[in-house]
Write a structure and sequence with these properties.
Number of helices: 1
Strand order of the largest sheet: 1-2-3-4-5-6-7-8
Helix content: 10-25%
Strand content: over 45%
Number of strands: 8
Radius of gyration: 15 Å
Largest sheet: 8 strands, antiparallel, barrel
């Protein structure tokens, strides 16, 4: 099942790059808490701004740094609320998180801000409340992300 998630994320990411004049790649520090357990990681992301009208499509792969290793895959759709240099946005996405051999599928909302420091470099900050489905139950999580994107 994990391979299908990876293939889907790669396929959609390449599709986004091929169809837009504003592709991007970047990295984020990811701080997340799931039912009170804290995890820290590095997230690599790619996608395209203005893919469908003003919507942004983003795929991501995250690796846990501490206190435990984890793998995270994500696919998000974002909609800007303003198109200026400082642009807040809303979004939704799907994620897969594997911590210690246990897989979590997550449905998440996204509230973020994008600040264009130059034409090519954008700083981002996000809050992502997430509902994880695991082993027939559910867990609540929240993520804070701070990152940078490079437009091509």
């Amino acid at each position: 099942m994990k391979r299908w998630w990876i293939l889907l994320a790669v396929f959609l990411g390449l599709t986004a790059f091929a169809q837009t004049p504003r592709p991007f790649a970047g990295a984020s520090l990811n701080f997340q808490w799931i039912n009170g357990i804290g995890l820290t990681g590095l997230l690599l992301q790619g996608g395209a701004y203005d893919l469908l009208d003003q919507a942004t499509l983003r795929g991501s792969v995250g690796l846990g740094l501490s206190p435990t290793n984890y793998l995270e895959l994500g696919l998000d759709a974002l909609l800007p609320l303003d198109t200026g240099r400082l642009s807040p946005y809303l979004g939704a996405g799907l994620g897969y998180l594997n911590v210690g051999g246990t897989g979590f599928v997550g449905l998440r909302g996204i509230l973020g801000v994008d600040y264009g420091t130059t034409r090519e470099i954008h700083l981002t900050g996000e809050v992502l409340p997430t509902l994880y489905l695991v082993n027939g139950g559910a867990a609540f999580g929240i993520q804070l992300r701070f990152g940078v994107n490079r437009l091509f």
